[in-house]
């Protein structure tokens, strides 16, 4: 699960009884998110490219219809 807060963006592993942080970054280090790949025939999946202030980037595969609201919640590159 991805958690987007005012100060941090975190990737969480959610189990039946607990959750733990798998990855986290201060939100100010995130420069933007763009839609890298989207299958117009399947709105349940997309690849989002995350750009960071240091010039690095990574691709995140998103599943479910929630990925569209994620792009709106984060700065767009």
Strand order of the largest sheet: 1-2-3
Our estimate of the beta-strand percent is over 45%
Largest sheet: 3 strands, antiparallel
Question: Helical proportion?
Answer: under 10%
How far the N terminus sits from the C terminus, by CA atoms, comes to 22 Å
Spans of at least 5 consecutive residues whose pLDDT stays below 50 are: none
How does this model look, in words?
- It is built from 1 helix and 6 strands.
- With 77 residues, it is mostly beta strands.
- Helices cover 9% and strands 55% of the residues.
- It starts with a strand and ends with a helix.
In short:
The chain has 77 residues and is mainly beta. The protein is 9% helix and 55% strand.
Indicate the topology:
Layout lengths: L1 E3 L3 E7 L4 E8 L3 E9 L6 E8 L4 E7 L3 H7 L4
Antiparallel strand pairs: 1-2, 2-3, 4-5, 5-6
Characteristics:
single chain, 77 residues, mainly beta, three-stranded antiparallel beta sheet, 9% helix, 55% strand
């Amino acid at each position: 699960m991805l958690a987007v807060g005012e100060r941090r963006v975190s990737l969480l592993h959610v189990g039946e009884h607990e959750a733990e942080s798998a990855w986290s970054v201060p939100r100010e280090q995130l420069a933007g998110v763009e839609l890298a790949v989207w299958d117009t025939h399947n709105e349940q999946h997309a690849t989002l490219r995350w750009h960071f202030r240091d010039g690095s980037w990574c691709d995140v595969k998103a599943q479910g219809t929630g990925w569209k609201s994620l792009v709106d919640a984060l700065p767009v590159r």
